[in-house]
Amino acid sequence: MASSTTADGSVVRTAERGQMTMAVVTAVADAKGVSPKELDAKLHDVVDPDGLEAIFGTGDTSSPSAARLVLSMADCEVVVYDNEQVIVTPPVESTEDEDGSAPTGSEFRHD
Questions:
Q1: Residue 105 domain flag
Q2: Is there a domain that residue 76 lies in?
Q3: Of 37, 32, 102, residue with least CA distance to 74
Q4: What is the DSSP string of 4-59?
Q5: Could you read off the pLDDT of 66-101 as tens digits, one per residue?
Q6: How far does Cα 6 stand from its chain's mean position?
Q7: Total domain count for the chain?
Q8: Interacting residues of 93 by C-beta distance below 8 A, sequence separation 6+
Q9: Residues 1-44: pLDDT tens digits?
Q10: Minimal CA–CA distance to 24: which of 33, 35, 13, 34?
């Protein structure tokens, strides 16, 4: 599986045919800076691994489509594309004040 890291710390990984679940787990672990075995979160707690493989792990990129799955695992945003690509964005460091409120001028991401 090929992998790279972007300037913002996101991990981009391309899955081999039938290895989408492994690509997701490995990319999340890379984004968190741990081995896959050290992850507290389990993929099966957020998505059905068999369903993920059935839809995204077929290796069929011959027909263009815009299918993607967005999920959260281990505090990371995970986006799985039908072209066998996985992009994992690690959590942003907390910038909350002591009382739990966000400081003035912060930007929040809303999808």
A1: no
A2: yes
A3: 32
A4: EE-TTS-EEEEPPTT-HHHHHHHHHHHHHTS-GGG-SS-GGGTS-HHHHHHHH-S-
A5: 788 999 999 999 999 988 899 999 987 655 555 554
A6: 13
A7: 1
A8: none
A9: 667 777 788 999 988 888 999 999 999 999 999 999 999 999 99
A10: 13
